[in-house]
């Protein structure tokens, strides 16, 4: 199956599951849940949940496994969406456009947007710990929960954002940029792969290989994000293009120029593909995803 078709089918499956799991906007907390739903259903490529499902398939392609991974896959999307809402706030990147629509705080106000992000963050762990929708063995769920919580927190995404903010308007060595990318964006992407693998019962050799794959595609994803910010249009991206240069942000293109940055993204994807050597045809979706990450246009 072509990667484009696979991505489309998986995205629809994830959206169907999100629609089933997500709290309805009714009752006492209607307005708050409305704000959460607005960003969660505003579109988005759903790459993190798709990676989780694809990593599970690489280990065990029984349809029941994919079904069993769905709550965790959706939890990853909730965490990602919360991070986007908070990242867009005036205190952070102060953006007005996300996924082609007004950002959460523009529509609901700053306080509501903070709470919508907080609500989605907590809801992610509600999903992954809810026994009525999870069929995986408790020890697998616990391992996945720890993997995702660690990646989302202070040693991962939140830590990376803090490092990014602390270094704004400063000159810093390339190694710091690499650390920011690895934690701010890479950690949640890598944990999406590992959570799928843990849920599907991967052995230690498979975990080691997927750890390397996840690290490389996480890096490639942010390098390409830097490239797109510098080269694509706001219409293509559904978010402000050229904002990194405007803010004088350190990025891969700022360090290396466009051509060398493209080479670095390709190198990371090649390393990711090499890491999958021990997997058979069941890892084909993961291979397609790595190539897609290098060539994506938004
Ligand atoms: C805790 C107050 C508080 C804030 C946290 C953690 C955080 C703010 C922000 C996370 C950092 C962040 C948003 C990194 C950018 C990652 C990135 C490249 C996002 C775009 O992801 P895509 O392209 O987006 O997958 P779609 O819209 O397709 O889902």
From TrEMBL:
It holds the Pfam family polyprenyl_synt. The keyword Magnesium applies. GO terms for biological process: terpenoid biosynthetic process. SUPFAM superfamilies: Terpenoid synthases (SSF48576). InterPro entries: Isoprenoid_synthase_dom_sf, Polyprenyl_synt, Polyprenyl_synt_CS, Prenyl_diphosphate_synthase. GO terms for cellular component: cytoplasm. Keywords: Isoprene biosynthesis, Magnesium, Metal-binding, Transferase. GO terms for molecular function: metal ion binding; prenyltransferase activity. Its cofactor is Mg(2+). The keyword Methyltransferase does not apply. Belongs to the FPP/GGPP synthase family. This is Polyprenyl synthetase family protein.
């Amino acid at each position: 199956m072509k990667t484009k078709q696979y991505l489309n089918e998986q995205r629809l499956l994830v959206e169907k599951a999100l629609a089933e799991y997500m709290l309805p906007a009714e009752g006492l907390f209607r307005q708050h849940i409305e704000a959460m739903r607005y960003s969660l259903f505003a579109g988005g490529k759903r790459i993190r949940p798709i990676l989780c499902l694809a990593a599970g398939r690489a280990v065990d392609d029984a349809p029941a496994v994919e079904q069993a991974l769905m709550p965790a896959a959706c939890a990853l999307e909730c965490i990602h969406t919360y991070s986007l809402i908070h990242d867009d706030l005036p205190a952070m990147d102060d953006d007005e456009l996300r996924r082609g629509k007004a950002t959460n705080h523009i529509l609901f106000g700053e306080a509501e947007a903070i709470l919508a992000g907080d609500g989605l963050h907590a809801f992610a762990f509600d999903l992954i710990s809810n026994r009525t929708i999870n069929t995986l063995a408790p020890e697998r769920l616990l391992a996945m929960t720890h993997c995702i919580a660690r990646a989302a927190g202070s040693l991962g995404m939140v830590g990376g954002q803090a490092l990014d903010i602390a270094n704004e308007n400063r000159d810093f060595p390339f190694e710091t940029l690499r650390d920011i990318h690895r934690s701010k964006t890479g950690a949640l992407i890598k944990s999406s792969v590992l959570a799928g693998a843990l849920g599907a019962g991967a052995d230690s050799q498979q975990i080691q290989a997927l750890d390397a794959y996840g690290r490389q595609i996480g890096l490639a994803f942010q390098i390409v994000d830097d490239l797109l910010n510098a080269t694509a249009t706001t219409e293509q991206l559904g978010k402000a293009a050229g904002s990194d240069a405007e803010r004088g942000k350190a990025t891969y293109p700022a360090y290396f120029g466009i051509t060398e940055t493209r080479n670095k993204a390709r190198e990371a994807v090649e390393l990711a593909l090499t890491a999958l050597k021990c997997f058979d045809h069941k890892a084909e979706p993961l291979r397609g995803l790595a190539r897609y990450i290098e060539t994506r246009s938004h």
